[in-house]
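Continuing the batch. This is chain 6 of the set; chains 1 through 5 are on the previous pages. Same settings as before, nothing changed between runs. Recording input and output for traceability.
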Amino acid sequence: MTRRNPFTEVSCVTVGYIIHMRPTHRPLFLLKSFARFVPAVTRAGIVSAEGGPRAALALTPNLARYWFTTAREVEQGAAAAPDRIALIDDTGVTTYRQLRDDSRTLAKWLLDVQEKRGLDELRIGVMARNGRGIILPLAAKGYAGAHIFLLNIGSSPEQLAGIFAENDINVLFIDDEFADRLPADTANTANTAGITIVRAHEDGGAGLSIGQVVRMDVDRQLPRWPQHGNLVLMSSGTTGIPKGIVRPEPRMPFVVAGYLEAIPWRAGDTVQLTASIFHTWGWSALQVALATRSTIVTRRIFDPEACFRDIQKYRCDGLISSPIFFKQMLDLQENYDTSSLRYLASAGNAVTPSLLRRTTERFGPILANIYGSTELALAAAASPEQMQADPTTVGKIPPGTVLKLYDDHGNEVQTGETGRIFLHNETALRGYTNPTTETVEIDGLVEMGDLGYLDDRGYLHVQSRNDDMIIVGGENVHPQSVVEVLEDMPGVGEVYAHGVDDDEMFKRIAVWVVKSADITADAVRDWVRAHLADHSIPRDVHFVDELPRNAVGKVVPRFLPGLGQKN
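Output for chain 6:
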């Protein structure tokens, strides 16, 4: 097992006469990946005759010029279906032709800013909710050839100051509602006077807006062969400067076939996208939506009733979301027509058996589950059929991905045995923006930070985070197993489980419960006792009004009362 500085990595290293390469680069593996990729993208209609000979002729040059960037998807969408609605957001409706034209104009303007300011390269930051305020910069990035940083909308002023300084951001697209978080005095870090600021969503604020920019007449040519920079996603850390995770713009994203094997996504679908685009799941879903020339319906702020109304109004084929949003929708009693939905796709949090059962009762057996991470992209995907057959699985390993499980000594574990999950694919991180941040690698595979096992079908099961599993009285306890049991208990609205320090046992299980009816701590313990072994029974039961969550819906443990305290 080795730790590495990922910024110094090369694909292959020659040692004597031996060439060490990542397992994803081996010719036979690439051939097998390609054999799964082609049928999946063809069946989905990413490669099709839509748009006639002219669109078909544009396919190869667009791929050569733009790789698999957002720019390529927008350009090809405009060639194949120029008048199809590409986006319905809070600002209005736009077609694929309009989306391409606006993205090109924005790219020209960015290049103009670069020239006038004498910038060596464009380093674009985006702090925006779902909508054209984040989609247009993503597309313009591919046209102009730039680096882009998708900032977590929960970032504090202190974090933003650190991000600006660490990453040398020189253009920032930011929603009006976040403008007050811009550092007031950044003399010792980044100087906002040196950052060209553009309002990503027009909400009555002052200054240049993205809508004004795309209406400009910018007289310059776009580069025929853009120099594609990095896509940088930020960790959702709650303290310190969020880690900047450097992801490449892929030339051949085999992992896309993993999404399409699990989700019956087809060209021309209408999809409701509630997953946050600044997060890896939302960004990935956006790429698939544009590649399939889908109509994307999205809102800046999630509202379960509005989501239902949009599904009903636009007859959506798919809902791309996360468990935290599904739960809010399922809690509504109103009856909306969702018969048009053919699939739900979920990522970002675990799909528990309880959530699967509730979504099935409300929408039918159409929920697909996506498992991955910000660093390593897609790791596994489970189709609705696989989820119904086994709610504990996160599914099949996608093409272009090597995934293995190792014990603490670096030995690969056997089928059915729990191990630490390691993987690599062509969309995995290149490294971190801070070169001192290390990753853990074994045999060219990077650790995900989760524990799990592979069953005899090769399907992955995730049990917990590495640092979540605790030992109680010599027994391994996965807090997620306690969550899954308690979600079925009447009176439990939401629940979170975690290990806390214990003077006698070193660790014990604690739970935090949002009640939907009157229940007691003893009742909670009794319910767990009836379903799990004694060492899983929570000694500490905290009743809270709500679970503290970050911008992507993950619980922030440090804000929970009693966590980490000895009592």
